[in-house]
Amino acid sequence: MVKIFFSSGHMANQPGAIVGDLNEYEIAYDITQKLEDHFKEDKRIEFRYGWPLAQKIDHINDQSDYYDLVIELHFNAAYREGACGTEVWYWSKKEEIFARIFQRNILELGGKDRGIKTGAYWRLIKGKKIWYTLAFLRRTIPMALILEPLFLTNLEDAAAIRRKSFRMILVSKLYHALIESCNLLEREAQ
């Protein structure tokens, strides 16, 4: 049977981005919990909340032959208020098709397409190219994605995520992306 691990990013005591009344961990937790409600009878998806990153990665890697895909839900923040939109991060070519599934479904909400991106990137700092990697993607053995549906630091994105109706539509889009991913994994396993 196909098995997907889906978790909210961050923890209550390390909440990620906090922008005014918006708390990244609380939003990711809320959306993940609502998403889990749709999968009560479908045991292909395992939901987890509030684990320290190292413990989460160890759990996943200890059962690396058990999980086909692992996903973390986050919300972006930027120094520029104008930064907005959706991006999905992946590590290697094998995850790219799943990144595209989630990106396409989330973009049905109408946000800006920031693209799918590999988890290794660089920034120019004081004239030097400094490379960064996203630990969740780099250290996880099964295929892995990080979802960033919008920016909490953008006024329009922040207004949207405050609306219960928007959150429910986002849950629906994530649900459809998970079902599509499960179906694809099942076809590949045959």
Annotate the secondary structure layout.
Blueprint: E1 4-8, E2 18-19, E3 22-23, H1 24-37, E4 45-48, H2 53-62, E5 69-73, E6 86-90, H3 96-107, E7 113-118, E8 120-125, E9 128-133, H4 135-139, E10 143-148, H5 155-162, H6 164-189
Parallel strand pairs: 1-4, 1-5, 5-10, 6-7
Antiparallel strand pairs: 2-3, 6-10, 8-9
Radius of gyration: 16 Å
Quote the beta fraction: 15-25%
Q: What is the multimeric organization of the chains shown?
A: single chain
Number of helices: 6
* Shape estimate: globular
Strand order of the largest sheet: 4-1-5-10-6-7
Low-confidence stretches: none
Query: What class do helices, strands and sheet pairing give?
Result: alpha/beta
**Count of beta strands:** 10
Helix content: 25-40%
In round numbers, the mean pLDDT is 93
> Largest beta sheet, briefly?
6 strands, mixed
* CA(first)-CA(last) distance: 11 Å
Strand/helix succession = EEEHEHEEHEEEHEHH
Keywords:
6 helices; alpha/beta; 190 residues; six-stranded mixed beta sheet; 25% strand
State the gist of this model.
It is built from 6 helices and 10 strands; from the N terminus they run βββαβαββαβββαβαα.
Provide structural commentary:
- The chain has 190 residues and is of the alpha/beta class.
- 39% of the residues lie in helices and 25% in strands.
- The chain contains six helices and ten strands; from the N terminus they run βββαβαββαβββαβαα.
- The chain has helices spanning 24-37, 53-62, 96-107, 135-139, 155-162, 164-189; strands at residues 4-8, 18-19, 22-23, 45-48, 69-73, 86-90, 113-118, 120-125, 128-133, 143-148.
- The protein has a six-stranded mixed beta sheet.
- β8 and β9 form a beta hairpin.
- It is globular and about 45 Å long.
